[in-house]
């Protein structure tokens, strides 16, 4: 069963026939909200709004561990994350969709691992390729079936937020090799890997990153909402194609 974590601009799934909602208790506290179970194109899916259904939880306060644990406990087979990003690379303008292939983590102070017990053997996790490649491949096929041109690959920089970056910080991220920047990709991806859940992301570019393109003189937060609304409609179609490819 596919689980979808919706980010900013995606607090509910249009066309999801909701069957039930379930509050899941976890050893890590409360997830961002009750899990929503339903059918999308006749296939079972679970949906969770990362920032809460009222969009009230800022990126650094999201209980990523509880969210991933809850999805895993409900037999999610794959997790597809939808994340709004700022575009750093020139061809990642507002409205572009990308399926990132790599991550650089700049976040701090978040609960970022399931393996922090001191009374068991130390556990390391291979994270060389942070996204699940077969799921990425299906997502790319789903995008093609939806008639959407998406950028296949790119490096996602995860920043702490909730403030946006300075122009100099974006220059540094670019020198580091980042193509896009968002605030929620980590530790979500790493926790999914730790718990053994195949995870991939679709990044929705909602603005040029600070100091770039139309954000040269600052980021217009009003424009972001309009871009996001339009792009999320296209994401919906891709998600529908993905569940059709995946089955239950
Ligand atoms: N920076 C960080 N996170 C974001 C941005 C950005 O420019 N746009 C959307 N999420």
Description:
By secondary structure, the chain is an alpha/beta fold. The chain contains 5 helices and 11 strands, in the order ββββαβββαββαβαβα. The chain has helices at 64-73, 133-145, 167-176, 185-195, 221-246, and strands at 2-6, 17-22, 35-40, 43-49, 78-87, 97-99, 102-105, 151-152, 155-158, 180-182, 199-208. Strands 1, 2, 3, 4, 5, 6, 7, 8, 9, 10 and 11 form an 11-stranded mixed beta sheet that branches. A hairpin with a 2-residue loop joins strand 3 (35-40) and strand 4. Helix 1 runs parallel beside helix 4 (185-195). The mean pLDDT is 96. The chain binds hypoxanthine. Residues 84-86, 159, 164-165, 181-183, 206-207, 209 line the site of hypoxanthine.
Give me some keywords for this one.
globular, about 250 residues, binds hypoxanthine, eleven-stranded mixed β-sheet, about 30% helix, single chain, about 25% strand, alpha/beta, 5 helices
């Amino acid at each position: 069963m596919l689980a979808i974590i919706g980010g900013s601009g995606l607090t509910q799934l249009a066309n999801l026939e909701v069957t039930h909602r379930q509050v899941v208790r976890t050893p890590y506290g409360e997830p961002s909200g009750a899990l929503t179970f339903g059918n999308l194109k006749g296939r079972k899916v679970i949906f969770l709004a990362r920032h809460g259904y009222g969009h009230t939880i800022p990126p650094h306060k999201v209980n990523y561990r509880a969210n991933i644990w809850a999805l895993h406990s409900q037999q999610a087979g794959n997790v597809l994350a939808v994340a709004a990003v700022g575009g750093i690379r020139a061809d990642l303008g507002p409205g572009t969709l990308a399926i990132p292939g790599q991550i650089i983590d700049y976040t701090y102070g978040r609960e970022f691992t399931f393996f922090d017990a001191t009374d068991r053997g130390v556990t390391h996790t291979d994270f060389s390729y942070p996204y699940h490649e077969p799921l990425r491949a299906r997502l790319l096929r789903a995008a093609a079936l939806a008639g959407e041109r998406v950028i296949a690959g790119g490096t996602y920089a995860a920043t702490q937020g909730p403030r946006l970056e300075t122009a100099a910080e974006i220059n540094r991220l670019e020198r580091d090799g980042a193509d896009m920047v968002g605030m929620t990709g980590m530790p979500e991806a790493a926790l999914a890997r730790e718990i053994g859940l195949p995870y991939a992301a679709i990044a929705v570019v909602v603005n040029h990153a600070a100091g770039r393109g139309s954000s040269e003189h600052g980021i217009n937060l009003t424009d972001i909402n309009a871009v996001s609304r339009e792009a999320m409609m296209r994401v919906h179609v891709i998600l529908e194609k993905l569940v059709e490819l995946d089955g239950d």
